[in-house]
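Worked Example 4.2. Consider the chain below.
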Amino acid sequence: MNATATVLPSMGGPLRGLSTFFYRRSTLYLFLLLVPPLLWLGTVYLGTLFALLMQSFYSIDEFTAQIVRKPTLATYKALVTQPANLDIVFRTMSMAVCVTIASAIIAFPIANYMVRYASSRAKAVFYVAVLVPMWTSYLVKVYAWRLILAKEGILSWFFHAIGADALLEAILQAPGIGGPSVASSYLGMFIVFVYMWLPYMILPIAAALERVPGSLIQASADLGARPATTFRTVIFPLAMPGLAAGSIFTFSLTLGDYIIPSIVGAPGYFIGMMVYQQQGTAGNIPLAAAFSVVPIVLIALYLAFVKRLGAFDAL
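Applying the procedure from the previous section yields the following C-alpha cells:
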C-alpha cells in the first residue's frame, strides 16, 4: 500500500500540476484552446477573403489582358453600370428570393405536422425522409432532376398520361419562366433549387416549433381562439426565428450556387457562373472578385435583417 501510494503521485504529479495550473488560470486556458481555430479562421478564411477583396480593386488591361495591380474602382464601375452585369445580379437575387419564399411555404406545414401531430415513429420517419436526400451526391441529384424534367422525361410523361399536355405547353410558353422544356427553363431551375435546399428550411422550423410550449397553445384554445387565430398569434410568431434561420441557408446557397444554373435552366448567367467563367475562361480575376463581393454584401445585409427576427437564436 505504501509503495502504491508513493508511485501514483510521482506518475500523476506533472499532469496534475499542469491541470491545477490551467484550472487556476481559466482565461489562459481558454485562450490556448482558441488559438488554433482563430489562427485558421484568421489566416485561411479571412486572409483569403481579404485577398479576394483586394483583387476586386485591380483592373485588367483590355489590350494585353494582364492584371493591372493598381488600386482603382474601374471594375466596380463596370459592374454597376453595365446592364448585362446588373441583369446577372438581379436574376440571381430574384431566384434566391423566390426559392426562399417557396421553401418556406412548403416547409412550414411539413415541420408543423412533424412536431405537433406525428407520432414518435412517424416523426422519426419524417426526419429520415428529410435527411436522406442530403446524404446523396449533389451532382447525382442535379443530373437526375435534369432527366426528370427533360422533354421526354418523367414529368412530360406524367402530364401526357393525365391529358394535360396543353397545360404543360402553356407553362413552357409563359414569358420569363418557360423554355423548350422544363429542364431548359427557369421554372425547372427553380424546382431543382427548392428541392435541394428544402431540408435546410424544414429542420430549423421544426427545431423552433419544438420549443413552442404546448401550454400556450392550450391556453389560447381555452380562451376561445380558433385554430387559425392560434396559429397566427401564437405559433407563427414563435416559429419566426426558425423560419428566418432557414431562409439564411436557402437564400445564401441559391445566391452562390453555379452548378444548378449550369446544368438545369434557361441560358443566362448567374453570379456563381459569372465568377467561374471570369476567373477561368476569361481570366478576368478582378471582375470575378467584384462579382464575388456582391453575394457577400447581400448576405451581410440579409443577416442584419434576419437577426432582428431572432434567426441566430434558432441556429
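Strands lie at 59-60, 67-68. The radius of gyration is 27 Å. Compare this with Example 4.1 before moving on.
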